[in-house]
Amino acid sequence: MSSRYPINLTNLMLALGAVIFVLYLYFVGFWQIVDVIASLDWRLATAAVLIDLVCIGLFALSWQFLLDKPGLDFKNCVKIVLVSIFGDLMIPTASISGELLRINLTMKKANLNAGQVTASVLLHRLLLGITFGGVLGFSLILLIATQSMQISALYLFVAIGGVDIGLGVLGAFAINNVKRFKGILRGFVFRTAGFVRIFRRSYEPEKMYGRLEAGFDSFHGAIIGISRVRLMGSSTILTLRWFIIALIPYLMFYSLNYEVSYWLVLTVSIFVSMIQMVPIGIPGLMGVMEVSMTAFFLSFGIPANIAASATILTRLVLFWFELILSALVASYQGVSSLMRNGKR
Length: 344
What we know:
The chain is mainly α.
């Protein structure tokens, strides 16, 4: 019975997402959206798909900068990133599922230990958060300078950006001082030894701590081994990616013949990406993302039919296109793995 529970829960959350999406279409006006999308310039929509492919490539490249030598070639980095995207879309756990897949696949494909791989993924996630806060702050300044916005929305954006930067600084401190946690870890391992032996009599805390200590040392060595040049290179690419990915919804507005500020679209697209980190449990956050993005556009005075149409078109690229592409790559990886195992 226990094996059926996750499947039933997934189906339930999918159904919930579908209900939210249907209600969303009902309230914004389904036929109005159809009329607006019918006037779409499909050449610009196709360009949006190409931009998404560029952004996926930039994400993989920024991570490749952080991998120790020999590391991975760019092609394999893209494949692993796509599999991790599939994991994130299908198992919404604030990107944890995707990052675990990334670590696991990299250890199989690269001549790197667990500490080195984990260090690269955690640092990459940290840099993504820090660049998020920086670009959000920059776009807010330009948005305020070019047009008026509700004070409540301004406070919300500033608060989120401030919290994100604060967490990024805290995370950077924790990763850089990881060795200081070894004492806490040692105390935890030995204090819980009696409890663990209730379930496993052969448990030896000395050996367990030795393995954990080796992992800590490997992780810390990988962190300090990443040069400032590589860190700056990765950060620069991630920053550039934020500016480019906002072109997708911006092009959707443009293709609908509706003029909108790029800085407004950048601010909303960056902020909405933060919602994807909330582990709500609905695969792809179907319905939730559409409601959130449309609500933010509405708060800036964009008409409901235009805001909803641009949102749906953007989600067709950033969710459905990425889901299909990542599913194909994940399936290919699975078949390739089975074939390799069969030859052994």
